[in-house]
Write a structure and sequence with these properties.
It comes from Aquamicrobium aerolatum DSM 21857. The chain is of the alpha+beta class. It has two domains: 79 residues, Glutaredoxin (3-Layer(aba) Sandwich), CATH 3.40.30.10; 117 residues, Up-down Bundle (Glutathione S-transferase Yfyf (Class Pi), Chain A, domain 2). Strands 2-1-3-4 form a four-stranded mixed sheet. A hairpin with a 5-residue loop joins β3 and β4. The protein is globular and about 50 Å long.
């Protein structure tokens, strides 16, 4: 079994978990607090970032999109119509664009700030930057949620799946990011019916069940978080 160093409310870690789950492959999970910069973890990834996958031979593979490429090359190419990438190079480009949209742009605009202020700072020591939430950062992130949700709603309303006709890494990235916001109760789903319908389909997939079982100490998810009919 492969091992993933992760944090349960980091979107890029969730992306890796649900992607492996789509291929029916389990991961041994080690929850890491990257701000502690443990020596053993730094030996795997000197940048002290997550996720890190220990692949065959305990070879570390660092970064969500790098891990996704590895997963496609070692498993995905054998899955045919269940492959999370596409054969067509233009479709592959669109999948990569949307993965970047959610795991880089939305992460920088929204998710990173909400997770840091609401999840991490209360448990980080002052020497690591912990403390009271920054209300300015929270307001800015919440103002950005609407634009990203409007875009997701448009994608879901005009396509069968986010990148086109079938399920791909784009859906894994979008659902991973939105699931973090949903855990925190930061999405008013009634305003985005197409996105809600798409996310309901994602939540109903077997690969998503471990994410819905995640709990962070001291932070209870919103009441509908694990409800498949919300």
């Amino acid at each position: 079994m492969l091992t993933l160093f992760h944090h349960p409310l980091f979107a890029n870690c969730r992306f890796v978990r649900v992607s492996f789950g789509e291929y029916g492959e389990e991961l041994a999970l080690i929850e890491e607090k990257p701000w502690l910069r443990r020596r053993e973890f730094l030996s795997l990834n000197p940048a002290a970032t997550l996720p890190v996958l220990l692949a065959e031979g305990d070879t570390p593979i660092v970064g969500a999109t790098v891990i996704a490429e590895y997963l496609d090359e070692t498993r995905g190419v054998l899955k045919r119509d269940r492959r999370l990438f596409a054969e067509d190079p233009f479709v592959r480009a669109e999948i990569r664009r949307l993965v970047d949209w959610y795991l880089v742009k939305m992460e920088a605009d929204v998710v990173r700030h909400l997770v840091r202020e609401r999840v991490l700072k209360p448990v980080m020591g002052a020497e690591f930057g912990g403390g009271s939430p920054d209300s300015t950062a929270l307001r800015a992130a919440r103002a950005n949620v609407r634009q990203h949700m409007k875009y997701t709603n448009w994608l879901a309303g005009t396509r069968n799946w986010l990148a086109g006709a079938r399920l791909t890494y784009a859906d894994m990235a979008g659902a991973a990011s939105l699931s973090v916001l949903d855990y925190l109760g930061e999405i008013n789903w009634s305003e985005y019916p197409a996105a809600k319908d798409w996310y309901t389909r994602m939540k109903s997939r077997p690969s998503f069940r471990p994410l819905l079982a995640d709990r962070v100490r001291g932070l209870t998810p919103t009441s509908h978080y694990a409800d498949l009919d919300f």
